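Reopening closed ticket. The problem is back. First fold of the pair:
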Amino acid sequence: MAKTSSIEKNNRRRKMTAKFAKKRAELKSVVMDRETSPEVRIQAVMKLAQLPRNGAKVRIRNRCEVTGRPRAFYRKLKMSRLALRELGNQGMIPGLVKSSW
């Protein structure tokens, strides 16, 4: 089980990303547009730098929803390989059969 503080930090980052997503996208579109003047683009870069770092989507870490484990994460199931195996052995995941011989 991951530290509760790490899980909560990641949840705060998700909320902040959702909050600043629209503003960040607008500023990035201005920065990437080659048609705008350099002064306007520089101003947009400065405003983008003023936004909180945790508002960026790349700062979010994929974590298992069961254990909070950050590695060996299956995006489709939103859980780690260890949680997947444990729940699969218990028969909690439909269609998943653990092979044995």
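Second fold of the pair, where the issue appears:
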Amino acid sequence: MDILKGKVAVVTGSTSGIGLAYVRAFAGAGANIVLNGIGAPADVEKTRTAIENDFGVKAIYSPANMAEPIEIANMISFAERTFGSVDVLVNNAGIQHVSPIEDFPVEKWDAVIAINLSSAFHAIRAVTPGMKQRGWGRILTTASAHSQVASPFKSAYVAAKHGIVGLTRTVALELARSKITCNCISPGYVWTPLVEKQIPNTMKARNMDRDQVINDVLLAAQPTKEFVTVEQVASLALFLCSDDAAQITGANFSIDGGWTAA
């Protein structure tokens, strides 16, 4: 499938996990790629070259800090200078902090809001003029099941993800006549290396075996009792970038094993 052949996709937080699945799906559909995220330089370079070698596209890397508006704007400018356009933007970078509200560190609140919500605003603001000029664009943001429901001790994360839905809907309305769509995807628990690494510590802390941690802790809220895969999330994103999805905008797509159905 070459549905993105000749297009350029910027994906934040894309050196691993869901973000890396996005870029590999887009590259497989013919898009040139702008990677962004953290990681050892050698690992990032290995990821970048693998994308080029596997899919025959161009891939560049921006180390832009998603907490810094100027760096976000510079990342978009870098992509436009290098490739001539940014046609697909995926706001995927995110962090988490868990704490009771009365003890929630102010600096952690500010960081979560900056990276999980404000960075999407700054990136969308930067790509919109070029997308309008070219008369085509796809804007996606990774939200979460927590864009629709709440969990205790995650006030900043839940607030940010709810905010993403509002931002998405507003941008969709503003750009509805510009051939630019704006949507968000809300996964439940996705099987990633980050989730896998949490299991041994949780086993120890709760005196549980691996299966108990997976079923009774991580997947407690997902009726299917199965993890979402990064490939499933990326496949949905790729569809939303296609011409078949041209009339889908301002939507929030749940992919959460039934978590938010109740």
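Update: turned out to be a display glitch only; the data is intact. The first helix runs from residue 17 to 28. The CA atoms of residues 67 and 114 lie 5 Å apart. Please close again.
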